[in-house]
Amino acid sequence: MQNLSEISGNIVDVLNNRIYTGTIHIVDGIIRSIEENTNSYNNFIMPGFVDAHIHIESSMLTPYEFARVALLHGTVATVSDPHEIANVLGLKGVYYMMENAKGAMLKFNFGAPSCVPATTFESAGATLSASEIDELMQRDDILYLSEMMNYPGVLYKDAMVMEKIAVAKKYNKPIDGHAPGLRDQQAANYIAAGISTDHECFTLDEALDKIKYGMKILIREGSAARNFDALYPLLKDHYNECMFCCDDKHPDELLLGHIDQHVKRSVALGFDVMQVLKVACVNAVKHYKLKVGLLQRNDSADFIVVNNLKDFSVQQTVINGNIVAENGNCFLPKRSHQIVNHFNTTKSTATDFAIKAKTDTINCIVAHDGQLITGNEQIKCKIENGFAVADVSKDVLKMVVVNRYQSTKPSIAFIKNFGLKYGAIASSVAHDSHNIIAIGSNDDDLCRAVNLLIENTGGLSAVNGNDELVIALPIAGLMSDKDCETIGQLYGTIDRKAKEWGSTLRAPYMTLSFMALLVIPQLKLSDKGLFDGWEFRFTELFV
Amino acid sequence: MQNLSEISGNIVDVLNNRIYTGTIHIVDGIIRSIEENTNSYNNFIMPGFVDAHIHIESSMLTPYEFARVALLHGTVATVSDPHEIANVLGLKGVYYMMENAKGAMLKFNFGAPSCVPATTFESAGATLSASEIDELMQRDDILYLSEMMNYPGVLYKDAMVMEKIAVAKKYNKPIDGHAPGLRDQQAANYIAAGISTDHECFTLDEALDKIKYGMKILIREGSAARNFDALYPLLKDHYNECMFCCDDKHPDELLLGHIDQHVKRSVALGFDVMQVLKVACVNAVKHYKLKVGLLQRNDSADFIVVNNLKDFSVQQTVINGNIVAENGNCFLPKRSHQIVNHFNTTKSTATDFAIKAKTDTINCIVAHDGQLITGNEQIKCKIENGFAVADVSKDVLKMVVVNRYQSTKPSIAFIKNFGLKYGAIASSVAHDSHNIIAIGSNDDDLCRAVNLLIENTGGLSAVNGNDELVIALPIAGLMSDKDCETIGQLYGTIDRKAKEWGSTLRAPYMTLSFMALLVIPQLKLSDKGLFDGWEFRFTELFV
């Protein structure tokens, strides 16, 4: 990595809403002076992009490998919630992320996950108590309490929830929200409790409502949830109250772009470029008090150089005065990654997945393409020798969740709309507890798909007789120790297999990973059983 | 525009599946020789991208203005079906597109629209008879019969359809298909009739079925329909039988990319780059016998220069030896555009849109976000003084279609799921006949939105009391005479208005434009009345 001592160009001063020509002088990674001049330049020097809410784990990459790609797209900082690894490894997981990020140059800004585990109706690998939150929050490098998903807990003043909120307030650090669909007085109460951001709005009205009560809105466009089209009108009058984020970004899509994509789309829609850059580069820095420079004297020398303010094609990314990426090449050296995990279950046999038919009618989960929400349909099940079995002709597949933290009996259900005609697919990325979740057309393939993950201590697998593929995710069963190109391509291969075997879903592994997410209704499956998200209680498979 | 006489670099010879270093010598726009050498270069010279099926009209730009943006993204050719303008202006429309494209450098390759009008249940502005198709097909610059949507007509050997097919065969030109969901023997029969491509597959199975019977499959990813995720597995074993296309591309999205986006995504997923480029650059050239060079000796000098084979960031686009675009700048001079139109209706009054309630129950159209298909829900309607009216509290809005080719009474229906709480929106882009379609919360705004389009002889409008906006589309009521940045930004502004007034749809004007498309079920509205697409006949508004 080369050290930069000076650079000239069109300087985009977003803070002061002006563009001027000049030369920036850098000493020890700090902008010591900026000389204005009257030269003419082709390049634009501007603050780097910030992703205001992301779970790095969803990229299946370590923070270091994530940085090696995100830096190419002009991202200089993220607000990273290590919620996924915390559900597997607790505090140890959070510290792993912080340790791994060292030397990655990109400023990750981790927070303290507020909701581990997400519910008591599933077996997570760890819990984070209020005192552990306190241990995190007293650190200078933990900047906020992240994603308070338990909004009923906030509204009804659950003791544990209030304790965690009190810890954040004690250290005067912001608290992030997560309250899809919350409106009116309930939204006002949630916000009055001290929650300052939300990244879950899916309609403009909802966002305007929350802004009215003082919230900052994160316009999210990632691999899993896409809200840009609904929310971009906020950029007109509410650019001071918005930030951009991805929340979840898969490796194949990270290769294509990051926050630069939000920016290009916004500018193409005709929004004022300086206002868009305020949303993309400045607001998160101010809200979270990130140590990220904004092209002012005495700021750390964090910025990007782009060809113009339309394409935002990144020529250089500079962090602390180091050129970390240039024209599609990242200068971070390759390195190996320490493996940490929490995987402690014995292999299954196919008979573990057999289920006696108590009646001939079942509550069947109905997946919806591109949505986290599911339906519940009462259907006649196919019965063979007294056992309820998958019925490929009706697209009714068997789904199982296997506790990966200890050996217990799997939970079993049925699901429609995955479309698989052959084989089975499985994943140890299964929000929020990240047990093993699998869907199959027959018990043998289903069992093999699960066991492949146990052998590899986590990952994604696809099995159809002798045709099998596994992407190992040995770090917490969530992340690979490989680089983004390798994982992006492997992800492409395994996704293709599921589609070749009949899946009609846009992203079968992504949909699979949300089928155990109990907090989003209606019918879901945890390792402990079939769960009705509207009633917020377990329910019976057989009617 | 600068003439190029020689260029050196890594030459990507997709036809022969090799990359080598060398210098290309160009005389009079033709590659006269290519000298191999052993130098080292940073740039890659490769064939340009081809969009194998697009309606240029959907960009709301003239072909010339479309080119000024598409060239930046490395597109050198399109296979362009002037179906939209033909529905408005017949042959005259087709010739307008060909005339306007002159000097645009991009090779548009227009075809003869096969299905004008689309049905007899609506008033289009023109018809194209078999003899008019013959007039087109005998021209050297009309290369194919485009998009045979009337697949029942093919299967049941409708005389008019067979006559058009016979014309194409007489001139030995390919026939494009359009047969969403057609399978097995029906697909085989459709293909056996001489239809050689399809761009409507939405599942992998369907595509494999059609390939089995000898069809070429176009993997479509545009603004309206997105099938890349479902179909990309074809790139593995079927790269010889596939092409890429957009079908419809809106101006705001055209600014962001074109076929280069298909290519980047495919390569990120791990597909062999030479096979991907075969799909993106070569297959359409061969299938349609396009006069587009492929970097061989004696080919016309059509190619692009990119930074690498991962980002495909376009440094230069060269057509017939001219550098037409470079680093985000297009060298085509600005110019004005001739206006042609077919708009002949008198203004409405609000009372034209009043409708007496015959009963208290109606067949209500149900829009689905992101889909062309609609539902039919029988609901109680709100009645005021004996008239059925919009009921914003239940999200039941009034929808009207006004014949734009002659003054007749409007047809009236009701629709759910647009979400508008105030005002009205209207469009003269309304597939396939492009009459005026409007949706509103009250008759006054509805009427004003319609009349704004009549005053402007076409466009998109939004009206909420005194707050009104119109994007004039004076060319056939479909296209602007302005440039892409202007239209992209205006489109952003009007889309934002609809969302600010309550619409929860991802793209309200896009959804609106398909609510009169009778060939896609279930309930639609033409200028002649409410239409049931399953029964393929008119139906009653009042139950």
Describe the structure concisely.
The structure is a homodimer of 543-residue chains. Helices cover 26% and strands 27% of the residues of chain A. The first copy, chain A, is built from 16 helices and 31 strands.
Describe the structure.
Two copies of one chain form a homodimer. By secondary structure, the first copy, chain A, is α+β, with helices and mostly antiparallel strands. Helix content of chain A is 26%, strand content 27%. Chain A has 16 helices and 31 strands. The radius of gyration of chain A is 24 Å and the shape is globular. The interface between A and B is large, with 39 and 39 residues.
Defining key terms:
homodimer; about 550 residues; alpha+beta; nine-stranded mixed β-sheet; eight-stranded mixed β-sheet; 31 strands; about 25% strand
Low-confidence stretches of chain A: none
Whole-angstrom Rg of chain A: 24 Å
Count of helices of chain A? 16
Instruction: Please report the distance between the alpha carbons of the first and last residues of chain A.
Output: 64 Å
Name the quaternary structure.
homodimer
The overall strand count of chain A is 31
Q: What fraction of residues of chain A sit in β-strands?
A: 25-35%
Rounded mean pLDDT score of chain A: 96
Question: What is the SS-derived class of chain A?
Answer: alpha+beta
Helix content of chain A: 25-40%
Biggest β-sheet of chain A: count, sense, barrel? 9 strands, mixed
**Rough outline of chain A:** globular
Q: Largest chain interface and its two residue counts?
A: A-B, 39 and 39 residues
